[in-house]
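Worked example 2:
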Amino acid sequence: MNPLAKKSALPLLGLLVGLPSAALGDAETSPVPLDLTHHWAGYFSLVVMVSAYAAAMLEEVTHLRKSKPMLLGAALVWFAISLVYRQHGQVAAAVTAFTSNLLAYIELLLFIMVSMTYLNAMEDMGVFDALRLALVRLRLGYKALFWVTGTLVFFISSVVNGLTAGLLMGVVVVAVGRNSPRFVSLACINVVVATNAGGSFSPLGGISTLFVWQKGMLEFTQFFTLFVPCLVNFLVPALAMHFAVPHDTPRVEAESIAMRRGAVRVIVLFGVTIGLAVFSDMYLRLPPAAGMMAGLSLLQFFTFYLRKTENRIASSARDAKLSPPEPDMPDGILETQRFDIFEKVGRLEWDTLLFFYGAMTGIGGLGFIGYLDAVSAWLYGQHSATLANVLIGLSSAFVDNGTLMFAVLSMRPELPEGQWLLVTLTLGVGGSLLAIGSAPGIALLGMTRGRYSFSSHLKWCPVILLGYFAAIGVHFIVNSQYF
């Protein structure tokens, strides 16, 4: 990935500084939005976004990155809206609406950027490789590994994005199950279900929960009331699959991996950064991204320290002909290393991040046109909130849950906290119903080379669906006070 040109920094800074004032300046004077649901611009925007999303879903077939059609679709939608509003002399209203969507995306982008930068730093320092090796060295049987990998990824995914957590456990499953395709298939299904369930009871676990937290629909601590329902969602299909897991014990090859110098301290700094994000939101009432950006500065200062001290430590170790004095610095890694934070930022999953820009601004445009109000009136006006949220959750097996959650938030339905918890739960775990319903499932499909497949996952869909409804039932029991 090419680095951003330095000359782009000043225009970007000007944009970010100008956005808040523009939003505040027009908020009080903006007229009522025009109803364009039966206007050519509305029909055009609807066709464009449906086409863009269809093209994004066919990424595996066309090999066209999903961000490309979504970016173009979002641009066309807002161009059409702005043209109509300009004809009515209300272009400022369209600008204010677009700015509001852009600010919401920037908050999300900054939060994810910091989180993924820390994860990339930990990956470079061998943290995930060391965890994988530790699990392999336990030399457990297939049944025990089935439960260990599922349980670990359930908790890891509450603080690490689902794609990373799923791939980490997927590597372990493939490493220990290379001689047992049946184990790999069952364990991967278990990992997908556990990852999606674990990411649903924490605001840090996924895009949909992060959306709800940043919009202020739920407090940070309220998400953890979903722990028991999410645990049930994981355990019901796991218990059913347990009896199909082979009884054998895998044979694994010996391997040596050690974490690099500073790895443990980066893990600690990541915990501090998460704490700053929570403190910013709950005590200072600032967006969580403010705390995350403060945490990014801590990582930058720490990598500066590592870079300045590594040569001195390496020299001392060579002169004394001893192993490096730091316990987390392995033998053989004394050569000069670069600790470039911006290189780690460049390795983010930009295709996904740009896809969400297109999805958020495009859906925001449809909402500004008036379509989301119409859908909300039908979905939440003619059906109970519970049925609506259950159906939305089931649809996340086909449509990305982050996109669906943003659509629900854009509808602005009047829901009690219990229903916001319910839609968070259903959208989080609904993607487990199909292998293509979530990022971990899609990633494992590509990594396992056929041992885990769409059809093998579909075979266990009934018990996963049972876990879906069991989790909903448990939620109504343990969180009845929120309804």
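The chain has a mean pLDDT of 80. Residues 91-124 form the longest helix (34 residues).
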